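User: I'll paste a sequence; please echo it back and then give the predicted structure.

Assistant: Echoing your sequence first, then the prediction.
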Amino acid sequence: MSAPQAASRAPDSRRYVLVSPCRNEAQYARRTLDSVTAQSVPPALWVVVDDGSTDETPAILAEYAAKFPYIRVVRREDRGKRSVGPGVIEAFNHGLAGVDLGDFDYVCKLDLDLDLPPRYFQILMERMEANPRLGTCSGKAYFTGAAGQLVSEGCGDEASVGMTKFYRVDCFRHIGGFVQQVMWDGIDCHRCRMLGWVARSWDDQDLRFIHLRPMGSSHKGLWTGRTRHGFGQWFMGTSLAYMTASAVFRMTRPPLVVGGVAMWWGYVHSMLTGQKRYDDMEFRRFLRAYQRNCLLKGKARATEELNERAAAWFKPPHAGPASGVKDVLAAPKPAAQP
């Protein structure tokens, strides 16, 4: 029996559950499966939601599920196409519905196109144990550039990355789970800060992972992926000034110029056509105030000051009897904090 299989039950204080929505990931799935099953602290449960794959993904998942008892495969009917954003969270929630969150300390939404370093989850849990306010965290994503070099995807330190959202269960319940819309992976971290939690990612060597499908590349092309991000910023409540500054910064990152232009156009087009916005006005006011401070003081300083203020009033929520996604999604919207 291999070492990962022999240690298939995580310590009681480090029991984490992974939920992985996927569709047609045969090209990448084995690398993700191998990197997770080789973790120094393996998951107590890994729910892989096959969202109607038509390639070899189901056979690959069945092969690994037969070897590793903590892997549970959930099959959904073929919807006829890959669905990003809302569709990913729909599939995630479908998998989470069969999980009793009360059995776990941590929950993670994990994509099936990643190559993780072997101590990835162990290090994240150690850092969360050291800081009780740390609600969600991750490492940093890199992809392989045209010349074969590793290129950072450039996620800020104040957020956990969307392809590996590692959460303390109490925090995940507190924010009410993920919003089923584009920019769900921005709204969640802002809601964490709004409630006094800390969201974080680190660029340490032992936490860097390879994103086999680069962020924003989209199954329909990079331009579509980046314009979708711009719509997501509009939906979330981002101001035009902040979106413009963000797009200009992105123009300096690969793909040069075009990525930032696509993001800005996605936002402006959504604004001009009157697209729907996130209907939580309290959240949008909080977001804009935070973003103004980011523009005035820099993101790192603005985030540090906000986290310091929240330390004066933050109290961890009491663990409730929530048993799964229905309880999480039924959680009340966060109340205003002093």
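Residues 1-9, 319-338 have pLDDT under 50 and may be disordered. Residues 14-211 form a domain with the Spore Coat Polysaccharide Biosynthesis Protein SpsA; Chain A fold (CATH 3.90.550.10).
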